[in-house]
Amino acid sequence: MKPDASGVKAYLAELPAERRATMEAVLRLVRRAMPKGFVETASCGMIVWEVPLAVYPDTYNGHPLWYVALANQKQNMAVHLMTVYGIPELDREFRAMWAAAGKRLDMGKSCVRFRSLEDLHLPAIERAVGACTMAGYVARAKAVTGSAGRAARKAERDTAAKAGAKPARAGAKAVTARPKPNAKPARAAAGAKPEPVRTAARTPRRTPARSAPR
Question: Does 139 fall in a domain?
Answer without folding.
Answer: yes
